[in-house]
Every structure is written in C-alpha cells, then in structure tokens.
Amino acid sequence: MTGWLVTGAGGMLGRDLTDVLGATAGVRVTAAARDRLDITDPDAVGAAVAGHDVVVNAAAWTDVDGAESDEAAATRVNGQGARVLAEACAKSGAALLQVSTDYVFPGDAARPYPEDAPTGPVNAYGRGKLAGERAVLDLLPERGFVVRTAWLYGAHGRNFVSTVLGLAARLETVEVVDDQLGQPTWSRALAVRLAELGAAAAGGRAPAGVYHGTASGEVSWYGLARAAFELSGLDPERVRPTTSDRFPRPAPRPSYSVLGHDGWSRARLGPMAPWREQLADALPMVRQAVSGSAGGTA
Do you know which Gene3D superfamilies this protein is assigned to (predicted)? Predict the structure, then answer.
C-alpha cells in the first residue's frame, strides 16, 4: 500500500486528484484542504507528511492579479510553502510532486519551451512559483518532481471554459482574445498523469526533475472558446476575436505558453492527449457543473 498526501485537496486539481487516487488499487490517500493544512507551517507540514510515500502539492495562491499587488503574500504560499514541504519530504524520505506553471517563462518564444529552457517570469505569480520550483529541486535532487501545467479547466471551481459556457447562456456574442497561445489542459487528465508519475517515482522508475503536464497541441483563448461552443452544440460564430489590450489587467500575461513534452520519455510515459480531445471528454462534466451553479439555466 502506497501512502499519498494531497495538499490543496479542496481545489479544482486537488479534488480530481483525490478522486483518481481514491479509485486506484493499492493507494491510501490523505486529502488535506487549505482549512486542514497550512503548507507554510513547518510543524503542521512535518506531521502531515510523516507516513506518506508520495506528496503532491496542489496548494497554491492562484490569484495572478492579486499576487501583483501583494507579492510577498503570494510568494509565502507558492515559494516558501513549497520549501517547507520539500524540507519535510527530505526528512521523511517521501517523493514530492510540485505543481507549477507556464508563467515561469517570459512567453516570448516561437516554439514550445523544453523542460530545461531558461526561465524568466514576467509577473509576481510566476516569480513566486519559480521560487517554489527551485526549492523543491535543490532540497530533493533525487525525489523532487516539478510538473508545470497551464490553462487548467475542469468541473470544480471557476475556470475559462466554465466561464465561457456561462456567458453563452446570457450573451448573444462573447469577445475572446486571440493573441495568446497555450495548451488548455483538463484538470482530471492532469490528475491521472500525476498519479502515473507518482507511482513511477515511488517505484524508482522516474528520474527526478522537471516535467511539463499540459495537453498536446496549441490554440488561442479564442480558438478554445469556439471549440467549447462547437462541442456543446452552440454556434461558434457567436465567439468574436479581440486583442489583449482591450482587457488590461494588473499582471502581464505571457503571450506564448506552449510547453514541450520530451521529458515524459524519462518516466516511460508519452505526451498527454491533444487539447481538443481532452475538451470533448471534459465538457459533459463542465456543462453539468455550469448548469448546477446557474440553477439549471445554462
């Protein structure tokens, strides 16, 4: 029996990961939501990590714009919290899977960022997450795994896909930016991949280091919105393209967030499924969640 601890278990990814692990034979999972475990508290973290073989840190400050105005608070969670978990895992012998972000890159590339590409965050959120990455890799050179993901959506919590479908129920047309490229990734598909990587890590079959946990392919937010409409039986022509300068925000966003996936071969795993395939699989659950939150009107 392999013991897993999932921090941030009340979030979108954490809930999916807890469900996936709970249905996996030979796994004992401890789900630690934010109200149960403060990852910046060394004593609490040490007690929580003890007795587990694999720890997945899905806890994070995810308010990107809020991080811009309070970088210290965001970095305390995303940077120092990861360090506290890594220190506890170093003492206990557990492997740590640290969920990170495409925002550690500047977003000025013209081809997918490989796992070893130079970093260069353009906002406070990215700087805090990069601090967390470095802590895990420094403190756990043999048992630290950084899994960068991007453009996550799913059935739990607010995200781009659920927001767009909610707008479709209220507006005739929706304007979406067409000048940012990325890889929309279903949170449940990422949860399955984290479970696979953690099992490989526990079995000594996966080398520590950086992995990119995003869907294959690439698309703009506009293209994603059109696909969500089309696959939901709605007219995609209701989605209209626009540019990022029409929606100024406190934190700058990378314009190119496409990640390469060569690292998975080290763990004997292939790339994740294409973004459109993931979206088609996810939409029934996302639509159900949207309908429920809107009282059945969406």
Answer: NAD(P)-binding Rossmann-like Domain, UDP-galactose 4-epimerase, domain 1
Give this prediction's pTM: 0.96
- Is 153 a catalytic site residue? no
The two beta strands, 209-212 and 144-149, are: parallel
Assess if residue 178 is contained within a domain. no
Q: Coil, strand, or helix at residue 252?
A: coil
Residue whose structure tokens are 């700058």: 252
Which pLDDT belongs to residue 256?
A: 97
Specify if 211 maps to a domain.
yes
CA angle 142, 139, 211 (to 5 degrees): 55
Per the structure, how many domains does the chain have? 1
Domain presence at residue 289? no
How far is residue 109 from each of residues 82, 120, 256, 271, 273, measured CA to CA in Å?
27, 11, 6, 21, 23
What pLDDT was estimated at residue 246? 92
Sign of CA dihedral 188, 216, 130, 63: negative
Q: Which of 125, 211, 222, 256 is catalytic?
A: 125
Q: What domain range is 111 assigned to? A: 2-158+184-216+258-273
* Count of residues in the chain: 298
d(CA 258, CA 278): 16
Q: Is 298 a domain residue? A: no
125 vs 61: CA distance, rounded Å: 8
- Chunked mean pLDDT (size 10), the chain, 298 residues: 97 98 97 96 98 98 97 98 98 98 97 98 98 98 98 95 96 97 98 98 96 98 98 98 94 96 96 98 95 54
Name the residue among 27, 28, 25, 49 with its Cα closest to residue 37.
49
